[in-house]
Design a protein that fits this description.
FAD/NAD(P)-binding domain; 31% helix; 3 domains; alpha/beta; five-stranded parallel sheet; Enolase-like, domain 1; 466 residues
Length: 466
């Protein structure tokens, strides 16, 4: 079998790359190691976690705010089996949707481990050991990432688990200890915290979600404490011991004192690492860096002229939508077009409640670069729409250039900010000023008015409702 392009990996980056290649008239194949398409995101990442976040938020609201809304319930309880089954159905529907898109775009799907024989020949070994060889002109590596761990931690997948196992728990933990205060830990912690679990977060840094603007972590921590989260900031994990029924985590604080936490589960959520095992990169002369990433140029081409790499296996944020943009980008590069990606405008989102969303530069980054800026902040407690829905935690922060007023960064924590951030991305793509947003009419009452008010605050401190 001979193809113009072969994509290895069917996650958001891989399947989007394959679709775009097919749209541009290339004979395209996609190789997926597992039985279902969609990669980590659709199977054990973005989609199932959001399904459980949604279900747990419904329960939490029924348990805590429905009475205030005038809705009385009796015998409220969690049915974890049904919750996990619904999540599985959501995953199944999305995976089937990707399979349909492959057929629609006439993309050949090969299930098995894809491995380079040489730069134009790929061997696919299926689960039964049967091999097939594909001849190809171009190759796009989109094999994604897998959960990272620490050398001394044994992931038994029973008591010491990753996000993959956490998404399959059919019993609410009594006490879940989470190592890592990043996005994955806070989202999964939110699921079980809402359902009644005690959550303890052990984080090495001084703040949670440390990759985002510091004020976002500070605000999120306030909100999660209301759920009963316990935070151990500036703590270094030194040991994890599990038995058949419990797990003990030892962590050292800044004073050098060791504290022990005992729970029934320990979720290791310290990030993810590129997954390139079995690819046979050595057969084509491609090496990885000290973090396991493949080096690429500005066109996302590796050192081998016909092989490209996208998504989590290269530098940059490990985000599904970043991988999608790169998938389309590479397909268009191969076809001779001249696309572009502005990595500064790839938004980041944390799907807790309140949600956290960010795009552009943080205050810390602007200070480091010695950029003169001004700040506008508007709290959701001053929003009529937020008061009506009882979602008053959080704020919107707009950072604008002190001289030109161009928006340099937008950071939001509050209700539906995952959707609200899109307006900021559009504004920054067209290099809007804070005053541009301040002078745009926003429907009332909506959450998005908070963005307008923050822009007003950044424009000569003109916010109207604080």
């Amino acid at each position: 079998m001979k193809y113009d392009v072969t994509v290895i990996g069917s996650g958001p980056g891989g399947y989007v790359a394959a679709i775009r290649c097919a749209q541009l008239g290339m004979k395209t194949a996609i190789i997926e190691k597992y039985d279902t398409l969609g990669g980590t995101c659709l199977n054990v990442g973005c989609i199932p976690s959001k399904a459980l976040l949604d279900s747990s938020e419904h329960y939490h609201n029924a348990n805590t705010t429905f009475k205030t809304h005038g809705i009385d319930l009796e015998n409220l309880q969690v049915n974890m089996d049904q919750m996990i089954d619904r999540k599985a159905q959501v995953v199944k529907d999305n995976v089937q949707g990707i399979a349909f898109l492959m057929k629609k775009n006439k993309i050949d799907v090969h299930h098995g481990l894809g491995s380079f024989i040489d730069k134009h020949l790929i061997k696919v070994t299926n689960s039964e050991g049967k091999t097939t060889e594909l001849e190809t002109d171009k190759v796009i590596i989109a094999t994604g990432s897998k959960p990272a761990s620490l050398p001394f931690i044994e992931l038994d997948k029973q008591r010491v688990i990753t996000s993959t196992e956490a998404l399959e728990l059919r019993k609410v933990p009594k006490h879940m200890i989470i190592i890592g205060g990043g996005v994955i830990g806070m989202e999964i912690g939110s699921v079980f915290g809402r359902l009644g679990a005690e959550i303890s977060v052990v984080e090495y840094m001084d703040e949670i979600i440390p990759a985002m603007d510091k004020s976002m972590g500070k605000e999120l921590r306030k909100s999660l404490k209301k759920l009963g989260f316990n935070f151990y900031m500036g703590h270094k994990v030194t040991d994890v011991n599990a038995t058949s029924r419990s797990v003990t985590v030892a962590a050292e604080n800044k004073k050098g004192e060791t504290e022990e936490l005992k729970g029934d589960y320990c979720l290791v959520a310290i990030g993810r690492k590129p997954y390139t095992e079995g690819l046979g990169l050595e057969n084509v002369g491609i090496a990885t860096d000290d973090k396991g990433r493949i080096e690429v140029d500005q066109q996302l081409r590796t050192k081998v002229d016909n092989i490209y790499a996208i998504g989590d296996v290269i530098k940059g944020a490990m985000l599904a939508h970043k991988a999608e943009e790169e998938g389309s980008f590479v397909a268009e590069i191969i076809s001779g077009q001249k696309p572009h990606i502005d990595y500064n405008l790839i938004p980041g989102v944390v799907y807790t409640w309140p949600e956290v969303a960010s795009v552009g530069q943080s205050e810390e980054q602007l200070k480091e670069k010695k950029v003169a800026y001004k700040t506008g902040i508007f709290p959701f407690k001053a929003s009529g729409r937020a008061r009506a829905s009882m979602d008053t935690d959080g704020l919107v922060k707009v950072l604008a250039d002190e001289k030109t007023d161009e928006i340099l960064g937008v950071h939001m924590i509050g209700p539906r900010t995952a959707d609200m951030i899109a307006e900021a991305v559009v504004a920054m793509e067209f290099r809007a000023s804070a005053e541009d947003i301040a002078r745009m009419s926003h429907a009332h009452p909506t959450y998005t008015e908070a963005f307008k008010e923050a822009a007003l605050a950044a424009t000569d401190n003109r916010a109207l409702h604080i």
